């Protein structure tokens, strides 16, 4: 049974509505739409991490309640991964959702974090401005805040 089918069966059997929205490419690579992520963040069920650059944060604002971790990190890959871990109080099994501009960078970062032992890494593959995966956080009218360093 594939993971997608298994998740659907669990949802049907349990009636857990929020989980019916989650899809998976495999057991390790999980995806969320922007509205799914926003609902989970609002409920306190996932930490949203925006991995774009400060310039991008200034251009569009940032998703409400997002943690900001610049992927172009002065400490390189190890510094970046360490900062992500700091955002979840050192708990590599804490659920996190990654967002970038269009989902390209988050796809790569998701693979990196899973390889580094993170247990629940969700990719918001439509990103902030949209992609083939969906219209994006901004076009969906989801809540944003100004970049705090403006």
Automatic annotation (TrEMBL):
Pfam families: Rhodanese. It comes from the Bacteria. This is Rhodanese-like domain-containing protein. PANTHER family: FAD-DEPENDENT OXIDOREDUCTASE, OXIDOREDUCTASE. The chain crosses the membrane at residues 6-22. The keyword Nucleus does not apply. Gene3D superfamilies: Rhodanese-like domain (3.40.250.10). Residues 42-146 form the Rhodanese domain. Keywords: Membrane, Transmembrane, Transmembrane helix.
């Amino acid at each position: 049974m594939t993971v997608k089918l298994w998740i659907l069966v669990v949802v049907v059997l349990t009636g857990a509505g929020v989980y019916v929205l989650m899809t998976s490419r495999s057991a390790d690579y999980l995806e969320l739409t922007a509205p799914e992520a926003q609902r989970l963040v609002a409920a306190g069920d996932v930490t949203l991490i925006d991995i774009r650059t400060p310039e991008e944060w200034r251009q569009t604002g940032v998703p409400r309640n997002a943690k900001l971790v610049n992927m172009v990190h002065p400490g390189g890959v190890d510094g970046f991964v360490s900062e992500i871990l700091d955002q979840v109080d050192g708990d590599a099994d804490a659920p996190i959702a990654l967002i970038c501009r269009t989902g390209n960078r988050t796809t790569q970062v998701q693979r990196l974090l899973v390889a580094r032992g993170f247990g629940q890494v969700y990719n918001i593959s439509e990103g902030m401005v949209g992609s083939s995966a969906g219209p994006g956080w901004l076009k969906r009218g989801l809540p944003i805040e100004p970049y705090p360093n403006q």
